[in-house]
Amino acid sequence: MKKCVIVLLLLALFSSSLAKAQQWEYVVELSDNNSPYIRETVLLDNGDIAAPYGFINPDANREFCSGQPGLLLLSADGEELERKTYVKPAFWGYPPRLLWDEDGEMYMILNYSPDHDTTSANYFLNFDNPPDYSILGLYKLDDNFDIVESHEHQIPIDTFMCPRAPAGWNASNSIYCGSICVFTTLVDENTIVGGYMKKPTADYYNPRGHDSVFFFRMGFDGTMIDRKGYDIDYGNYGFGGFIEWGYVYMGSTHIFKTDDGFAFFTALSYPIDFGAKDRYGTPGYAYFLDNEFNLIETKLFNQRPGLEDQGYQYPTFVASDHNSIYLSTCFMKNGGYGRTGCALYEYDLGSGKTSELPILRYIERASSGRFDFTALLRGACIDADNNIYFAYCLRSGEGGMTIEHLHPDFDTIATLQYDLRPNGQVCRHTIYSINVDRNGDVLLTFNSINVGMSGRKWSSVVKFSDKTFVGVGEKQGDGTKNVIAYPNPGEDVLNISTELKDAYVEVYDVNGKLVHSQTMKESATSISAENWPAGTYLWKVYATASSSSAGSGTLVECGKWVKE
Predict the structure, then answer these.
(1) CA angle 40, 42, 47 (to 5 degrees)
(2) Which residues contact 412 (CB under 8 A, 6 or more apart)?
(3) Do the Cβ atoms of 247 and 37 come closer than 8 Å?
(4) Residue 19 host element (H or E)
(5) What is the DSSP letter of 241?
(6) 111-115, 245-249, 271-275, 308-312: which has the highest mean pLDDT?
(7) Residues 443, 462 contacting (CB under 8 angstroms)
(8) Residues 477-527: pLDDT tens digits?
(9) Domain containing 535: what range?
């Protein structure tokens, strides 16, 4: 397996002060069938890092493929310590979910469909008598990620021959077979609470949706303590295998503990709507369940004014410590196809008698006329001070990756923009998750593809120091930020980022002396501050006639920057 370190690429694009903020980067080139597509990081008590991943195992003719799971163990310094795969003649499809009991013993939960083989149509060895069940498995792991104990439950599924669809639809791929999908888990009172969806085989000529969703409580000894199912009428939306299309973001957390039981969150892009198939044009729902998984009430996620008819895309959720939920998402803007924005919302989970979850606050970030994406698995996380980290990509990932450190009121503390451009060529990035460790350092997990280098791909975990995100932020009276200066405080380089076209920047010292001015031709401009004395500087960004109806000379935003 090829492992490459590409810190120098960061140095080539950004300043030395930003490079110092990066503690390490673990990078794997996705060059063969066993290459791990890393999805997230799980912090261990000893400081090491577990990284669940999946990889695609095609047959020799590359006509069929089967997803298989694995686990990486990284040290706190980013060195690979262990790599384990869990391969069977089966279709797994999802990376493991790690859980710990009250004694600190580690477990993983997985689901798979048995009796698959790469030489068989639709992967089943015998389609005259295909298996009529999938496996929900709980596996105890040792410190080296070896399985030392296993408990498996057979879950009935509906499986039938899938006719080959028209050209362009790989309908015979096992990814569309009848199966289950475990989509969320948590530990509650030393038991495992989770949910899984059951779907039939996809059929292009007779599309059918998912038929049921189940919530369950399981002991760490594998005993199924409680389970409750709900029928789902999703009509003909989706190609049957819709849940597999949601391979990545369905691995995020969707169920949370409440005083009365559990809160379960979905969006309209998910095939879980408890009969709400005709409610398109709404962003998503919050379902409140009691401890036996009985549905208590359903509330609608409200959108900000002007986006009431827009659904969420790739939503991920994280709970606060004050009875609210943070939702990281991207969405279509004002009905325009291909025009999306990234947003972070905070919703009140109070028990008020309303049919909608009230919006407490939100921020949006967007480029002009291109797809913008939030992280697909976990788009936000919370540090020890209840501040928030928010991760997203602009311009289909070609605009680099952005991490914002926010106060609980969503005021920006500091912003980091990160990119990889081998040989100066643009990469497209997909962020999967963001995490923060006990020291406040930030871990970002993402995949990259460089189209200009014959499609070379990488899967990466990068760690940034907490000192990167301690800054001085300024905002306008209405709370908007059109311009971002970073890192703040900084050293030898001041970076100014804006989506304005042909903006003009000026920088003044504490005595009001102009020390730098220039027209900004790029969205991100690096200004050398190497010869400036340490201290506080004032930057001002003006709009030109092409970007402001007020005309040239209009002050858009100003702020302070501190050189250390």
Answers:
(1) 135
(2) 404, 405, 406, 473, 475, 481, 484
(3) no
(4) helix 16-21
(5) T
(6) 111-115
(7) yes
(8) 333 346 777 777 778 888 887 767 678 888 988 778 899 998 887 767 889
(9) 493-563
